[in-house]
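Hey Z.,

So I finally got round to the flavin-adenine dinucleotide thing we talked about over coffee. Here's the setup:
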Amino acid sequence: MLDLAILGSGPAALSAGLYAARAGLSVHIYGSDEPGGTLMQIDEIANYPGFQGSGRDLAGIMRAQATSAGAKLDYGECLSVQPAGDRAHPVYRLVIDDEPVDTRTVLVATGSQPIPLDFEVRSPVSYCALCDGPLAAGKRVIVVGGGNSGVSEAIFLSPLVESITLITRSELKAEAALQERLRALPNIAIREHTLATPELLDTFDYVFVCIGKRPATSFLEDLADQTVFDKTAGPISIEVTRELRLFDSSGYLITGRGKSGAHAALQHQTAIPGIFAAGDVRSGVSKQAIAAAGDGAAAAIEIARFLR
Ligand SMILES: Cc1cc2nc3c(=O)[nH]c(=O)nc-3n(C[C@H](O)[C@H](O)[C@H](O)COP(=O)(O)OP(=O)(O)OC[C@H]3O[C@@H](n4cnc5c(N)ncnc54)[C@H](O)[C@@H]3O)c2cc1C
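And the result:
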């Protein structure tokens, strides 16, 4: 029986593994990809304090630190999480690939992925202005997406680039204050009711795509309508209510709603006792590597406290 199973192997997971192992927990990290998560896609990380280099190199250091502290690390995709035990002694049975794994707590650190364009373009394409904005310096840029993230990305890019065209297939959907800031930019053209096509995107030097992200939480969907532990008996089947939701409207995990007592301080716990979340998969966090690493560390500290 593990103290902690960590799902995902990006910066949130590896940092949580390091902290949990150093706290004396038996901890196993299961990642469906090469350890490092989204870091493995980043050529150069320029915004991680204390480190400069590729995401792959940063991931290698994180992985070595976690495993030398005692965390076990394996390839494995989590397919389901099912409750067992009772409220005083919650236990979870995971299915990792085909193998069952029993654990007292679970940290979901499975991240999120940008929704990609469904066609090829010749111009360079990025899904992260904060990461790749400097590569588009002085260029004519198109931003695809008129929600909060597309408009925020355009505002961020404005001082760096020659000009920005923002297209959205309907009207701008971003909140009013962001729209006001967007319209005030000196180098912006806004085209509503405009579809992204390869022909259009190829007339620009650089393409930023912000048409949404998908959190990797589908393997938890069954838990959303069951699983709250009874105080005395085993798991009882009650609906996760509006007040006790697992996911926000975009599918990210809601955390930190312990009502009173010791659980009030558990900012990373989901609606289900013993299931925690950290990094990009958690609702309301900054989607950056440094934030994910810090979040994983904070979650592991909480989990050690929870288990004690
Ligand atoms: C193209 C790109 C460039 C970026 N550049 C930068 C940058 O320069 N600086 C910066 O700070 N941030 C950057 N980011 C953001 C940064 O990579 C993320 O914020 C960070 O990696 C999130 O860490 P995480 O641990 O929460 O999740 P991730 O790094 O996404 O890791 C999640 C891992 O979980 C695995 N997983 C998913 N489902 C399962 C499952 N069911 N079972 C087991 N494992 C599973 C995934 O395969 C993945 O390996 C960039 C993101 C992208 C997409």
